[in-house]
Amino acid sequence: MSIETVFEQIDLLRCPVCGAAFSRCGASLRCENGHTFDASKKGYVHFAPNANPSRYGAALFEARRRTLEAGFYDAVIAAIRSAMPKDAEAVLDAGCGDGTFTKALAGKTTIGVDLSKDAILLAARGGGPILWAVADLTRLPLKDASFDVILNLFSPAHYAEFSRILKPGGRLIKLVPQEGYLKEIRALMGERLKRETYSNEAVVSHLAERFTLSERVRVTNTFPLTEEQAKDFLLMTPLTFNADPDALDAGALPSITIDAELLVATQ
Hints:
This protein is an alpha/beta fold. Helix content is 28%, strand content 27%.
């Protein structure tokens, strides 16, 4: 992405402070109330300068990108692509992380947002037509009724904001872990995890309160791992946040299970 990509998509943006429209002011976005946000030469806009630092650092996102590029999530990506309308003009990836999912699922116009600057810096690397933004999901810098599809993949959600920015009849596609997701890491962590099992039913119920849930698709695969791939999986998940990285034996992780559910909903 270049700075010009920001201004090409300015009609989709609004000030996250006051909600006013933006106009271009040199290399910056400026709203009518004087709130100004610079477009970085590295290819993104930072809309949340006061955000608290995230535990999701650069090393985690680099490891996550390697697992995605190695093909472990290809079946998941294929299922998401099948759930997306073919004529989608504007796509938002809310909680885009390193941007690998975003790039694989991009529409004609695509924006990726995440609260982690490290993630957005990685996503913006290499250029391309996608607009990347550091932004808070609770105050998205996006106009009302402006997106055909919102992707919310392995990420927290803010359904009031999603409802605001989706077009009438727009589609929300949320990806959540199922009970078998990374079960090998859960077993390895044992008592260091607060819970060793996972259920997404509370997530499903919360989504159904705000949107019409039309489809649920489960994707499950187990893959053999090399030791280097095992190290990446141990690094890329918050399941290991409470562990000493040096105490985790990647050699004790000969395989990994990807078990996820796709929730497809409309306004």
